[in-house]
Amino acid sequence: MDYAQIRHDLHRIAEPSGMECQTSAYIRQVLQTLHPTAIHTIADAHHLVAEYDFGHGPVVLVRSDFDAVRVRETMDLPYRSLQDGVSHKCGHDGHATILLGLAERLCGNPLPAGKVLLFFQGSEETGEGAAQLLASGFMRDYKPDRVFALHNIPGIPLGVVTCRAGSFTCSVISCDIELHGKTAHAAEPLNGISPYPAAIAITDKLLSLCQYDMQRNDYRIATLIEFRVGEPAYGVAAGDAVLRFTVRAKDDSLLQATKAFVEQVAQQEASRYRLQHHVSWKEYFAASNNDPDTVNLLRQVCETIHYPYVNKEVPFSWGEDFGLLTQQYPGVLFGLGSGEQQPPLHHPDFDFPDQIIPLGINIFYQLLSATIQKTSFQ
Hints:
The chain is of the alpha/beta class. It is built from 10 helices and 16 strands. The protein has helices at about 5-10, 20-30, 90-110, 130-135, 140, 195-205, 250-270, 290-305, 325-330, 355-375; strands at about 40, 50-55, 60-65, 115-120, 145-155, 160-165, 165-170, 170-180, 185, 220-230, 235, 240-250, 275-285, 290, 310, 330-335. The strands form 4 sheets. Strands 1-2-4-3-5-16-6-15 form an 8-stranded mixed β-sheet. Strands 10-12-8-13 form a 4-stranded antiparallel β-sheet, covered by helices on one side. Strand 3 (about 60-65), helix 3 and strand 4 (about 115-120) form a beta-alpha-beta unit. Helix 1 (about 5-10) runs antiparallel to helix 3 (about 90-110), helix 6 (about 195-205) runs antiparallel to helix 7 (about 250-270) and helix 8 (about 290-305) crosses helix 10.
């Protein structure tokens, strides 16, 4: 299998979250040549699960994402994205190629026992994909014993594996706070009810929550995304406002407490200034909490195959919806270095390095083999 060609094909047909029709069809076409026991679909989504059944033994799920981000492709690549304003600047094209390579390895080198579920997932960037899998009931039927996933990590040397027990990525959620007062003629603003004082008070209180030291357990960041009061109508005194934030914390319990605080502040300030208000929450990413035993298994595998392994002292500040799966099943999300000179994720100049595709395939295959062996001795 020409991994680079597959990755470039996926890069060329980049599609945003929830719209991955071509990508899903391409992956299915490749999978059909690799003879899985079955290819499952998830209702009302573009996800695919390739099942390889090797007989009685542990059930293991390995996930890759395949949605792109809404970032314009500015690099002059021969395989540049065909869709304007959408490109694979998070490396999900590479992640999906790694999982297709793992399917090829399983096809040619079957495991002695167990069942492997290769979950090709869309809608990771919006935090919806893992939730859709869980809501479908598929996992209740298969009950995986372990779950695995990786993410490429710019800024880390090419091919270096990094991981940690406990929280590997932060809990993240976004919110819209709508404030509704009363408009008035611009010449008579006192006849209206302005949302501006409440908007300022809410913003100040939420930004005061920020504690930027990741070494501390109360690490938490509220980021103002948009602050909008009124409309561009010069004869009208503003009567409505919208505030948008992302909130992230080191663990899920602190995030949930922060959500409650946001709701309380919005209600109090809206009441103080005689406003109606509404808070809506979206794009939730649970913290990816890595199981210590599975992290140890990953470390042992890396030592056995002589891949460099670095323990990460603190979680990454970004969110990853694989956390919903590690809330339910023991598993691990680990990082695979994509180069110290690689631009950051979601940057227009990011491009997944093809060199690490075989490394990711081998790590996953060795993890599967070690899981089978570990279970057989218990």
